Amino acid sequence: MAGSYFGGVWAARHFWIHLAMSDLRSRWRRSFFGILWTLIQPLGMTLLISFVFSAMFHTPIREYAPYILSGIVVWDFVVACAIGGSLSFVQADAYIKQYGHPLAIYTLRTVLTNLVVLLLAASGLVIWVLAVMPDRVGWSWLASITILPIVALIMWPSSTLLAYVATRFRDLPYALNLILQAMWFVSPIYFEEKAFRGAKLDYLVDYNPLYHLLQIVRAPLLQGEWPTMANYAYCFGLIAVLSLAAWLFGRSAEKKVIFYL
Amino acid sequence: MSNLISMRNVDLSYASTAFKERSLKTALTNLFRPQQRRIEVHDIKALKNVSVEIRSGERVGLLGHNGAGKSTFLKVVAGLYPISAGTRAVRGVVRSMFDLSLGFEPDATGRENILYRGLLLGLTPKFMRGIEAEVVAFADLGEFIDYPIKTYSAGMLVRLAFAITTAVGGDVLLLDEVIGAGDANFMVKAKRRIRELIEKSEVLLLASHDFETLRSTCERGLVLHHGELRFDGPMDACIGEYKQLNGLA
Questions:
Q1: Model ipTM?
Q2: Domains of chain B, with CATH numbers?
C-alpha cells in the first residue's frame, strides 16, 4: 500500500518538478534583483539583528552574525514549508479535482521549491564564513550538506499533515503563525545556546529538535566540528515520528480532501 | 467482452462537515453553542445504490436534471471521489474532461500548456513533445497557439483541452457537457475524433442535456434522478424516460 502510494509520487515526478520550477520562475519574475533577493533578504536581516543583539548581549558581532544567518535561513525554510505547505492542497485544487495524483506531491512541490531557496540562501552563509572565519574550513563541512535531505524529510510529512488539516479548517495558517512564533521564541534560533544555559533553561536546548537540526549546519560551519550522534538521532527520530503520523492520518484524510476543496 | 467499468450498489454522500465548519473558530464555538440553536445541515446523498456494468466499445450517455448526480457519477468512475458503500472497479486508463479551464496556466502559451496538461495527466515530457504537432494541428488555433492562453476565448480553450485530452490515448473517456462549446466547424471535427476513439474500442461516458448529441453519439443511456439510477437502456427510450420523469413529455 505504501509502495503503490510512493509509486504514484514517483510516476508523477515530471509533474511536481514542473510545478516547483514554475513556482520558482514566478517567484523571481518581475523584480529587478530577481534571484538575488533570496540572498539579499537574509543577509540584510542578519546585519540588522546582529547589530542590535550583539550590543544587547555583549557578543562579538564577527561570531554572532553567521550564527544568526544560519538560524534565519533554516528557520525561513521551516516557516515557508509549514505555512506554504498547509495551503498546498487548497492552492492545487484545480489539479486535485481533475486527476487523482497522490496528494503528497503537492506538499512535495512546496518543499522542493523552498529547498532550492534554502540552498541559495545557505550559499550566502558559506561565503560569509569563508571570508570571515576561514580557519573553520575542514572535512566536517561535508556534514553540513546532510541538512538538505534531513530538513526536507522533516518538512515533507509535516506540511502534508498540516495540509490535510488546513483544507478542512481554512484558518489554520493564522494559528500556525502563532505556534511558529512561540517555537521560535523558545529555541536557540537567533538567541545563543549559552543564553538559555545561563538562565538554567538547558532543557530548551537539549530536548529541542530544532537545536539539533541547526547543529547539523552550525557545528561544521561555525565551529569546525562534526555534528554529534545525538544531533542526528534527534533528526531521524523526528523524521520517523512525523512520517508515521502523516501516514496514519493520511489513510483516512487523503480521500476526503477533494470534498473540502 | 470484458467489463471495463463495474459499479455495484454504489452510495456516495458528501459529509455535511465539508460546508459547515470551515474554520477552527466555528468548530470550537459550535462545541459551546446550545443544541437547539444549531442549524441542521444534513449529509448530501449524491448517489444511491447505483449499479452499472459497462463493456468495452460502449458509448453511454448520462441524462438527468441538474444535481441528479451525473458529474458525481463521472468523478466516481474517474476515481476522484471515494464511495461511501458498494464496490467500484474500473480497468484501464481513464481520461476525463470535466472543467476545461482547470489546470491551465493563464500566463503560459497554448503550446506550453499542452506540455503542462500532459504532465498533469501523468505523461512524460518526451511523449508530449512527440504528440505536440498533432495536438496543435487538431486544435487549429493558428498563431494563437504561441499566445498566452489568458488571451483565448472560451471556445478556443475548449478546443485546446479537447485536442490534448483526446490525443492522449485512454481506455475510458469521460466527458461532462463540453462538446457543445466549440463552433460548428470544430463540432464536426470533435465528433469525428470521438468516433475514432470509440472505434479503437474505448468506452465513452458523456453527460449532456443535448438530446441530438446524445442520440448521434451514444446508443445506450442512463437516467439519473435525485441520485438514483432510474433507467438503463437504449438511448431513444432513455430520452423518453428522462422527459417523463421531469414532466417534459
A1: 0.80
A2: 3-245 (3.40.50.300)
State the total domains in chain A: 1
Name the residue of chain A whose CA is nearest to B79's CA: A100
For residue A17, the distance in angstroms to the closest alpha carbon of chain B comes to: 10
Confirm whether A146 is domain-assigned: yes
Please give the pLDDT value at position B181: 57
pLDDT digits (tens, 9 = 90+) for B133-165: 999 998 888 899 999 988 988 888 888 888 887
Report whether B221 contacts B231 (CB < 8 A). Answer: yes
**Which residue's C-alpha cell is 468512475?**
B77
Check CB contact under 8 Å for A99 and B120.
Answer: yes
CA distance A24 to chain B (A): 14
Give the cell for residue A40. Answer: 539579499
Where b means 16+ CB within 10 Å and e means fewer, B170-206 reads bbbbbbbbbbebbeeebeebbeebbeebbeeebbbbb
Walking along chain A (261 residues) 10 residues at a time, the average pLDDT comes out as: 86 92 82 79 90 84 89 95 95 87 95 95 91 89 94 97 93 93 92 88 92 95 94 97 96 89 82
* Chain A: residue whose CA lies nearest to B24: A169
Q: Do B25 and A99 touch (CB under 8 A)?
A: no
Half-sphere exposure of A225 (CA within 13 A, CB side): 8
Within a domain: A3:
no
Return the minimum-mean-pLDDT range out of B103-117, B130-144, B229-243: B103-117
| Containing structural domain, residue A219 | 70-260
> What's the gap in Å between the CA of A5 and the closest CA on chain B?
14
From residue A217, how far is each of A210, B13, B109, B206 by CA, in Å?
12, 50, 42, 57
Residue B23 pLDDT greater than 80, yes or no: no
Residue A11 belongs to some domain of the structure: no
* Amino acid letter, B132: E
d(CA A121, CA A47): 15
Q: Note whether residue A155 is domain-resident.
A: yes
Q: What is the per-residue pLDDT for A3?
A: 80
